[in-house]
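Today's session is about reading a structure prediction critically. Students often jump straight to the picture, but the first step is always the sequence itself: look for stretches that repeat, for charged clusters, for runs of hydrophobic residues. Only then move on to the predicted structure, which in these notes is written as discrete structure tokens rather than atom positions. Here is the chain we will use throughout the hour.
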Amino acid sequence: MVGIVDDANYPGQAGWFLGNYEYLDEASASGKGTIDRFLVRIRDPNRAAQVGRQIDRLFMNSAAPTRTSSEKSRSQAGLQSIRERVPEIAVLKTLGFSNNAVLHLVVAEGVLLCLIACAISLVLAKIAIPVTQPAIEDFVLLLQTSWADVLRGFGLALIVALVSSLYPAWQVRQLSIVDALSRH
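Below is the predicted structure for this chain, in token form.
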């Protein structure tokens, strides 16, 4: 590491670090000589699409063409699965499901998907680390987790799942059947 630099826009709140890219790239298991992501801040948010297209044009014929997207569009993509299912939700309401029942279904689905992924990854990590111990002997102490840590991770996943599913669930709860069916 070369140094840690404070962000002038957020003094004392956000730190940046500078490092030797060649050293970091040398240690990469795959994708040597490549960078995964650039974050670009522009002055005029109304020009985001235009600037994105210009960036993509610069790399269009390269070995690694870019796919530029805004942070706003990335966050909205997370809500897309609920939007695509608006007609299904309207049908549930037509069949007599209450607003609260629909809210609970959406939250339960989000929580279930998140907890299944969490359980699989945490249990695999708990099992895989001891199995690979001979190959990663130097780092195994850093990677080992107790079952208490696995449960903490599961609890944190539950909190994240609940928090991230509440807003879409609330929107679905407020959805009127007529509006939902008229959109499609």
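Discussion point for the tutorial: The chain has a mean pLDDT of 79.
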